[in-house]
Amino acid sequence: MAKIAVLGYGTVGSGVVEVLSTNHDSISKRVGQEIEVKSVLDIRDFPDDPIQEKIVHNIDDIINDSEIDVVVEVMGGVEPAFTFVKKALEAGKSVCTSNKALVAAHGPQLLAMAKERKLNFMFEASVGGGIPIIRPLNQSLTADEIINITGILNGTTNYILTKMSNEGSDYEVVLKEAQDLGYAERNPEADVEGFDACRKIAILTSLAYGSTVHFEEIYTEGISNITTQDFKYAQKLGYVVKLLATSYKKDGKVYAMTAPFMIESSHPLYNVNDVLNGIYVNGNVLGNVMFFGAGAGKLPTASAVVSDVVDCVKHKGTNVMTVWSNKELELGNTEDEVRSFFVRVKGSLDDLTKIKENFGNVKTVTVDGIEGEFGFVTEEMTEKEFAEAAKNIPMISRIRIDKTVFS
Ligand code: HSE
Hints:
Blueprint: E1 2-7, H1 11-22, H2 24-31, E2 35-41, E3 55-56, H3 59-63, E4 68-73, H4 81-90, E5 94-97, H5 100-116, E6 121-122, H6 134-140, E7 146-152, H7 155-167, H8 171-180, H9 189-192, H10 195-209, E8 219-220, H11 228-237, E9 239-250, E10 253-264, E11 276-283, E12 287-294, H12 298-314, E13 338-346, H13 352-359, E14 362-365, E15 373-378, E16 381-382, H14 383-390, E17 395-401
Parallel strand pairs: 1-2, 1-4, 2-3, 4-5, 5-6, 8-10, 10-17
Antiparallel strand pairs: 7-9, 7-11, 9-10, 11-12, 13-15, 13-16, 13-17, 14-15
Helix pairs in contact: 1-12, 4-5, 5-10, 7-8
Bound molecules: L-homoserine.
């Protein structure tokens, strides 16, 4: 019998307990022994839930319990999670977490601590919810040089964008729905401003290249400025708007960004809708591979956490190597990135001369019912060239167009 503790009895924590109970028999068979949740740390009490008999309020009750081999950290946020995870590793316990803020901020240090002690620090659920992506990057794609990782990595914003696009729903209403469904972060700003997706692409990029990408260095835009008019233009062009988190290697440099992009129907992420996430990976020998599934939510995320628990129990006394050093990976300059842009500009199609002077050939688009402005799509240009040209026109907004996955 392997005994574990769960830190945090929120959406994911209760999901972990539920998954271990629902699939008790099949999990026991795969591990070769039973897994029992011995303690659950939470500041709250749950008098109407049988979990109450396992609730503890002091982390030391878990740290000092020599029967507990694995600690599941699903509290979210960097502190006190970081302190608790360090304590657990120092006490000889492996740790599994769904906490991308913790992993993005301290991943290499916690991996090193685990390695020194022949323990494991695992974080499958920190990216892509229930989708296996960390383990594939660490263990399955090891023959490849990774060229491109482009993903829809935030379920909440994908849910919002899908509902706004398909149903014309109001942003605030859909955000509330996503929160009620347990998809959103405690502070929804982390979702809608792109910070959550940015941390996830920082983790994936760090794993792909084995050194640290600081999420603060990744250019990030959220979806809060996307409007219903943008969706109408996108529809007319045959595009959809998605929040993409992307990193790719070009001429020896790694570029990374999180931002809303327009993508066309042949793009592999075009049909990734609702709370689903999709992660496209291109390897130099493998070619393309796609990971697709539930990117958030109680049971999918818990499924990924429990898969880590299984791995930790099976590898007791052995560190499963994850290459992610403290060495910093210097990112290429965003200004040098090359792509097309969709632009909304004040005026009418009669005003094209100025546009062409600054952007060269463009494809124009108008939408019935949207007056006093029009849209156009540029040819490929650098971000720097775009920014310079945009200064000379009455631009309303712009959305990047992603085609990197085809190049
Ligand atoms: N808030 C996150 C999302 C949860 O919506 O994707 C899963 O990381």
